[in-house]
Design goal:
The complex is a heterodimer of chains A (393) and B (137). With 393 residues, chain A is an alpha/beta fold. Helix content of chain A is 36%, strand content 17%. In chain A, the strands form 2 sheets. Chain A has a 9-stranded mixed sheet with strand order 3-2-4-7-1-8-11-10-9, sandwiched between helices. In chain A, strands 5-6 form a two-stranded antiparallel ribbon. In chain B, the strands form 2 sheets. A 5-stranded antiparallel sheet of chain B has the order 6-5-4-7-8. Classes of the chains: A alpha/beta (393), B mainly beta (137). The complex binds zinc ion.
């Protein structure tokens, strides 16, 4: 089996403002993200041979995209994979190129979460598991249960773990101040984050990402074609996707202190990319910080920190812009909000610019290898995407 | 009778285990056990996802279980806005039976401890609706 490593290149990307975009509908967002990507790649819409369109909340079928961009009579597949939808949309477009059935493909994700039934976060999705339990537990409650158990398992005092969460929140808010397209662009303090109102114990307001509208897009092609288009194209090194098949939170062996789907996705991705020591070999990462506890546990799931030790790395500043492995350099979901199928592509957009050396005030000194991670669903039932990127030699 | 009278908001019409609600009305919280492989299920399932057998039987969830984790919800989702704050818990009973649900309001948030012993009992809600909750064992 041949993996995806070095077989697909990104030659253009686009990303809209993320936030409460009351003056734009989802077609406007698709146009804005796609045309920035077309311009970046130096191509016309007619050059797109196939497209993959990720969306959960906006309309139905690939014709939504065909109509917005006038991409008539080309194949457009619609992708829905909850929080991993954006990265999975990208993954499908890459596989299209790698298979040889098309030379240039578009991957684009868009959501209007703010004016869709009041935003997905407080809207109850259909029961995941045919549960007869009352489904009164949206995502924040799911992840809060991990935070409570993590605190107990490692013997944390409430105030001490809240301070670690707050340090993650403060880091992401600081990075967000340098991201013009972010929903939230202001500094917060550790005290503010620790003392904010609780949403779902022990997670407070600043331990949770926002809900927003947004769209992001990528143009992918073969490395051979990419060479003829630009010098600073970015190579796909790995694409992993896992789905948990457990009986949701009721899986009796589940420990509530890790995400097995993320561990499996990371192992697959590291193997495909040829990475043996992720802490040393990865220069920057965009991880799924829907809640502070998710980012903390993800450090461990991805092998950035040993089990139970992620907080020590947070205290040491390892994941700040000045640290040895900066995480969520653009401010993450914390500052961009989380328009489901757009998020993964927005995160790839940041890694793409870091690896090109075009991340402006957020630019890292060394950015040769970058990682994107998304996780969504409920415990025992998550899906997780991990993608790794590198520069041409 | 089926799930139309279950919970604050009923999400399911899972007909194969509709007796769950009838049992609740009789004062019993019931789960199912696969007759082939012995796996226990709550919410009850008549089809076993482990061994794929379709032969299961009911049993009553008795005794106490241990609280594994919890969260106290300050903002309820659609349909539950007026219920908050409430506490969601995960509880482990014997033989790999894990149950998810609400904790009784009689237990103060400051008294909730991981590892505490709780039992599960049916509760009547407003408008003749029925559910179950965890109480101190
Ligand atoms: Zn069985």
């Amino acid at each position: 089996m041949e993996g995806i490593r070095d077989r697909v290149a990104i030659v253009g990307m686009g990303c809209t403002q993320f936030g409460e975009l009351w003056d734009k509908n989802h077609r406007d967002l698709l146009v804005d993200a796609a045309y920035e990507a077309f311009e970046d790649a130096g191509i016309e819409p007619k050059d797109i041979q196939m497209a993959w369109y990720g969306s959960r909340e906006s309309g139905f079928t690939g014709a939504q995209l065909a109509s917005a961009l006038k991409l008539e009579y080309i194949p457009i597949s619609r992708v829905e994979n909850f929080c991993a939808g954006g990265t999975d949309t990208f993954r499908n477009a890459c596989y299209g190129v790698a298979s040889g059935v098309c030379d240039i493909a578009l991957a684009i994700g868009a959501e209007k979460c703010k004016d869709h039934f009041g935003g997905f976060n407080m809207d109850i999705l259909e029961p995941f598991d045919r549960s007869m339990t009352e489904w009164d537990g949206p995502p924040v409650n799911q992840f809060a249960q991990l935070a409570t158990r993590y605190m107990y398992h490692y013997g944390w005092k409430y105030e001490d773990l809240k301070r670690i969460f707050a340090m993650i929140d403060v880091k992401n808010h600081h990075n967000g101040t340098m991201s013009p397209k972010a929903q939230f662009r202001r500094e917060i303090t550790v005290e503010q984050a620790m003392n904010a109102p609780i949403i779902s114990y022990p997670l407070g307001l600043f331990d949770a990402c926002g809900v927003s509208d947004g769209s992001a897009a990528a143009i992918v092609t073969t490395p051979e074609i990419a060479k003829s288009m630009r010098k600073d194209y970015i190579l796909v090194k790995a694409l992993a996707l896992t789905n948990g098949g457990g009986q949701a939170v009721l899986q009796p062996e589940y420990d509530f202190i890790h995400f097995p789907e993320a561990v499996a996705a990371a192992q697959h991705a590291y193997k495909e990319a040829g990475i043996t020591n992720p802490r040393q070999e990865i220069d920057c990462a965009e991880v799924h910080d829907c809640f502070a506890i998710t980012e903390l546990i993800t450090y461990e799931d991805l092998g950035f920190s040993p089990r139970g030790k992620a907080a020590e790395d947070v205290e040491a500043g390892s994941f700040t812009l000045e640290g040895d492995l900066p995480v969520n350099t653009d401010g993450g979901l914390k500052c961009f909000g989380h328009p489901l199928s757009a998020s993964g592509l927005r995160m790839i957009y940041e890694i793409y610019h870091q690896l090109q050396g075009k991340a402006g005030p957020r630019q890292l000194k060394k950015a040769d290898v970058g990682l994107v991670h998304n996780i969504g669903g409920i415990c025992g039932f998550f899906n997780c995407a991990v993608a790794i990127f590198g520069r041409p030699d | 009778m089926g799930f139309e009278s279950f919970g604050t908001v009923s999400f399911t019409a899972e007909a194969k285990v509709a007796d769950f609600v009838t049992y609740l009305e009789q004062g019993k919280v019931m789960a199912t056990q696969c007759k082939n492989c012995g796996a226990k299920y709550f919410p009850p399932q008549m089809d076993c996802p482990r061994c794929l057998s379709t032969d299961a039987e009911w049993f009553e969830v008795k005794g106490s279980g241990k609280l594994i984790t919890y969260t106290t919800v300050q903002y309820g989702p659609s349909g539950f806005e007026n219920d908050a704050p409430y506490t969601l818990v995960i509880v482990d009973f014997a033989d790999g039976l894990r149950i998810f649900g609400r904790l009784s309001r009689d237990i103060k948030e400051s008294d909730i401890k991981i590892g505490m012993d709780v039992k599960v009992v049916p509760v009547k809600l407003a408008d003749d609706r029925i559910s179950y909750e965890f109480q101190r064992a």
